[in-house]
Write a structure and sequence with these properties.
474 residues, alpha/beta, Aconitase, domain 3, five-stranded parallel sheet, binds 3-isopropylmalic acid, binds iron/sulfur cluster
C-alpha cells in the first residue's frame, strides 16, 4: 500500500511530466479556456515567435468580459472592447482554435460554458487566464487561473511550470436550512477563514452539506475559493457529477462513458490522507449572508447589524472596516435589513446558471420590483442558460416584475462593459467581488445569493428571503 493521497495529490501526480529545479514541476494541462481580456498578448507572442498552438483541440475561446448584454445585432460602441473581441476572433481563426462567437448560442461566461459543454471533467487539469477558473473544481478537476505569460506557455506547450500547493480541507457538516444556498455557504466560509485563509492551498470541500449540493451549487462554492485565497477548490466527483455530465456534447459517449465513470470513481482522497489545514463548519449555523464591506470577508448574516469598527480589536481589521463603511456609506450598528438598494444584478460566473435563475424567479413570481429601485437585471450565464430559462418561462416572470432580461456575458460583475453601477449607488449582486469600484467607479456592492438578490429587488432593501417565503406559506 502506498502513501495515502488527497484528491489534489492524485491529480497532480497523474499530470507531472517532470520534476525540475527547486519545487518546480512541469504539469500537463488537459484543457485551456481562453477569453478576450488575457489572451491577446499571448497570441501575439506566439505569432512573433512563429509558434503554433500545441493542442488547438484542447483549447476553446469565448468572449465574455467585454461583450455588451444588449441585443447582439448592435455594433459594440466601446472601441477597446470591440478590438479585443475582434482580436479573439482573428486569433482563434489564425491558430485553429474553436470559438463560440458572440452570436453563437453556446457563447457565455467561460466558466459556465466549459461545464455546460462537458469540457470540464473529473481528474483533468484545466486553466484559463482568469482567477475564477476555480469554478471547474466542482467536478473534481484541478482548475486554476493563470496570468497572460502562462497563457502563452500553455498555448505553446500544453504544459505549465508549477509549485505544488498545500492541501486544505473544508468540511461542512449537516444540512443547510431552507432559503440558505451554496452562495451563503461560500460567503460564510470566507467570513470564517478570511480572504487569506486558504493562501498557498488547494481546498477540498467535503461533508454532508457539500455532497447534498447540486453541480450548480458546487460550482458556486468552488468559484469563490479564490476569494478565500485558495489556488483552487475541489469537490470529489460522485453520482451527482456523473448525472450532470452524461450526454453533454464533449462528455465521453457509449462504452467510453462507462469506462470514464469507473475511473472517475477513484478520484477521492484516501481515508487516511493528511491535510495541512482542516476547517469544519456546521451547515445549520449558516444563515443567508450579505457583505457589508469592500472585501468578501466583510460579511454577516442578514439578521445582523453593520459592525462597529470601534469594537474590532485587531488594528488592521479595524481600519479596513472604517474605510469600508466610509466607502459603502453605512453607519455602524444599523440593521443590514435597513439598507436600501438602488440596483439588483443577477448574473456572473458565480450565480448565472439555470438553477440560480430558477431560485430568483421563485421569489420574484407574482411580485414587482420595488418602485424605489433604479434598475434590476438578470444576465444569464450563457446563451444556452438563456434559452433554457425562456423555455421554462422564467424570462416572463422577471420581465413582468420589471427586470431587464439580457444577453449573456460578465456584465455588471465588473466594469469592463457598458453595464455599470453609477458612482455612490448601491447594488445587491450575485457576483463574487465587492472591491472598491468593482461594478463601476464609486459603486457600492453587497454580495448575496440569487434568492437574496430577488428579495432585495422586490422589497427595495436587503431582506431575509425566508421572510418572503414564510409570507407566501401563510
Ligand atoms: C479580467 C480577468 C482577468 C479577471 C480575473 O482574473 O478574475 C476577472 O474575470 C475578474 O473576475 O476579476
Ligand atoms: S463573471 Fe465576473 S468573476 Fe466571472 S469571469 Fe466574468 S468578470 Fe470574472
Amino acid at each position: 500500500m502506498g502513501v495515502a493521497k488527497t484528491l489534489y495529490d492524485k491529480i497532480w501526480d497523474r499530470h507531472r511530466v517532470a520534476d525540475l529545479d527547486g519545487d518546480l514541476a512541469l504539469i500537463y494541462i488537459d484543457r485551456h479556456l481562453v477569453h478576450e481580456v488575457t489572451s491577446p498578448q499571448a497570441f501575439e507572442k506566439l505569432c512573433l515567435a512563429g509558434r503554433p498552438v500545441r493542442r488547438p483541440d484542447a483549447t476553446l475561446a469565448v468572449p465574455d468580459h467585454n461583450v455588451p448584454t444588449t441585443p447582439r445585432t448592435r455594433p459594440i460602441e466601446d472601441p477597446l472592447s470591440a478590438r479585443q473581441i475582434d482580436l479573439l476572433r482573428d486569433n482563434a481563426r489564425a491558430f485553429g482554435v474553436e470559438l463560440y462567437d458572440m452570436t453563437d448560442r453556446r457563447q457565455g461566461i467561460v466558466h459556465i460554458v466549459g461545464p455546460e459543454q462537458g469540457l470540464t471533467q473529473p481528474g483533468l487539469t484545466m486553466v484559463c487566464g482568469d482567477s475564477h477558473t476555480s469554478t471547474h473544481g466542482a467536478f473534481g478537476a484541478l482548475a486554476f487561473g493563470i496570468g497572460t505569460s502562462e497563457v502563452e506557455h500553455v498555448l505553446a506547450t500544453q504544459t505549465l511550470l508549477l509549485t505544488k500547493s498545500r492541501n486544505m480541507r473544508v468540511t461542512v457538516h449537516g444540512r443547510l436550512g431552507a432559503g440558505v444556498t451554496a452562495k451563503d455557504m461560500a460567503l460564510a466560509i470566507i467570513g470564517r477563514i478570511g480572504t487569506a485563509g486558504a493562501t498557498g492551498h488547494v481546498i477540498e470541500y467535503t461533508g454532508e452539506a457539500v455532497r447534498a449540493l447540486s453541480m450548480e451549487g458546487r460550482m458556486t462554492l468552488c468559484n469563490m475559493s479564490i476569494e478565500a485565497g485558495g489556488r483552487a477548490g475541489l469537490v470529489a466527483p460522485d453520482d451527482t457529477t456523473f448525472a450532470y455530465l452524461k450526454g453533454r456534447p464533449h462528455s465521453p459517449q457509449g462504452e467510453q462513458w462507462d469506462k470514464a465513470v469507473d475511473q472517475w470513481r477513484a478520484l477521492v482522497s484516501d481515508p487516511r490522507a493528511v491535510f495541512d489545514r482542516d476547517v469544519a463548519i456546521d451547515a445549520a449555523t449558516i444563515e443567508p449572508q450579505v457583505t457589508w464591506g469592500t472585501s468578501p470577508e466583510q460579511v454577516a448574516a442578514i439578521g445582523d447589524r453593520v459592525p462597529d469598527p470601534a469594537g474590532i480589536d485587531d488594528a488592521t481589521a479595524r481600519e479596513a472596516a472604517e474605510r469600508a463603511l466610509d466607502y459603502m456609506g453605512l453607519e455602524p450598528g444599523m440593521a443590514l435589513s435597513d439598507i436600501a438598494i438602488d440596483h439588483v444584478f443577477i448574473g456572473s460566473c458565480t450565480n448565472a446558471r439555470i438553477e440560480d435563475l430558477r431560485a430568483a424567479a421563485e421569489i420574484v413570481r407574482g411580485r414587482r420590483v420595488a418602485a424605489s429601485l433604479r434598475h434590476a437585471m438578470v444576465v444569464p450565464g450563457s446563451g444556452l442558460v438563456k434559452a433554457q430559462a425562456e423555455a421554462e418561462g422564467l424570462d416572463r416572470i422577471f420581465r413582468d416584475a420589471g427586470f431587464d432580461w439580457r444577453e449573456p456575458g460578465c456584465s455588471m460583475c465588473l466594469g469592463m462593459n457598458p453595464d455599470k453601477v453609477p458612482p455612490g449607488e448601491r447594488c445587491a449582486s450575485t457576483s463574487n467581488r465587492n472591491f472598491q469600484g468593482r461594478q463601476g467607479p464609486g459603486a457600492r456592492t453587497h454580495l448575496v445569493s440569487p434568492a437574496m438578490a430577488a428579495a432585495a429587488a422586490v422589497t427595495g432593501h436587503l431582506t431575509d428571503v425566508r421572510r418572503l417565503t414564510r409570507e407566501e406559506a401563510a
